[in-house]
Fold:
Amino acid sequence: MNAPTTIEWSERRFGPETAHWMPRNAETALDHIPGDDGIPVLGTTLAQLKDPVGFTNRMVAQHGKVYRAKSFGGRGVSLVGPEANELVLFDREKIFSSEQGWGPVLNLLFPRGLMLMDFEKHRADRKTLSVAFKPEPMRHYAGALNEGIGSRIGAWSGKSFKFYPAIKQLTLDLAATSFLGIPWGPEAERINKAFVDMVQASIGIIRVPMPFTAMGRGVAGRKFLVDYFTRLVPERRASEGEDIFTQICHAKDDDGEYLSVEAIVDHMNFLMMAAHDTITSSITSLVWLLARHPEWQDRLRDEMLAVAPAGEGVGHNSLGELELTEMAFKEALRLIPPVPAIPRRALRDFEFGGYHIPAGTNVGINPSYTHMMAEYWPDPERFDPPGAALRLYAGENLFPPCADDASHPDRRRLRARLAHVADPAPERRAHRHLRPALILLRRARCPTLR
Ligand code: HEM
Structure:
């Protein structure tokens, strides 16, 4: 038998399923890109972790919007700005792998989650999972969420406490009911603990699962949750529950087949992570910004009371009426994005910003930098929901004018729609005018950011 003489780096770390990952390219392959290799061994990792925003600002100021750094074990190229975001996120040429971009960060904890899949497999699983996000189940989740949020906020009333730990606990508890269909209690506590350990591990500095490290606890947490979900799948397939887990257990692919138990387990683990951490972070940011801008607290409060009486909760069907709230939430996402940078791996050579970037390169885009670019946001630090929302909806940051506009049907349609926006002054009216344009932005990968 012919044994391979070398085992590729991805297989050694993440197992045979990653054998198709591209081999690392030689360090010299990126010599022609301006940048910085940082200090010996650690490269630019510490500088980047210590002050991510300052690091990017410095690198762009010194090297331009395409720069090389050496963080987290190897050289990579960052592409910053809206054109880069468009190139990578739309990925019309199918150049970029999300699996091989996120994999080195998440594969020990959340392998085969939707974001760690590419192309046809990604399309097929995303379609199968979409049943869990249809209006009827969404209405049910909204009801379950409203109930949980209402009773917790009642308990918070009149007390003073730290917001982040409290909302983190609440989102975990809500995940138990709406994601898993189990009541709050000791079972949910055990699941929450395993889950928090996994999330902590995903941002830990030590990337191997050694005892007493965050990664060690994360990998143990994963094992617990894999066993837990695996045991429950047959029971859920026989039940009619309306939680996400049960919906996914019932989901069938294009051939009418259920997803495999392993696939359900992997999707559930990933979905819980994708939903929990981002929501916890973004609600905290919004509440912090509202605390600093009490006039906006009043506006949002008035808007909510106009939609539903105090204490009743806003039903799924009325969510669309919370226009100012949506603007304020998106402005919080702009100022403090929960996913500040997005990694990919180039599967083929490509050109960007005048540089040739070879296949195999780790490529990163940087929404948090884009959200602060003075070219697009005249006063980028200012919390200005309607102003920012209009720009976002106008697509200026996703669809900057460019020479080959004509070849992009999305842009053409968007511009045609925007041509009808006559008077953007009264916020709410303008927002309604712009709504059709939003539909065109539905290509973002996150199913909830639509
Ligand atoms: C404010 C809250 C959220 C933010 C800021 C956010 C952000 C993102 C971003 C930036 C991505 C794309 C990453 C990439 O392309 O590499 C993503 C993907 C994803 N998110 Fe979210 N997310 C949020 C809430 C949620 C929630 C609540 C869920 C589930 C209920 C969710 C499920 C997912 C899934 C499944 C993906 C992968 C989609 C795919 O690859 O097809 N997210 N999210």
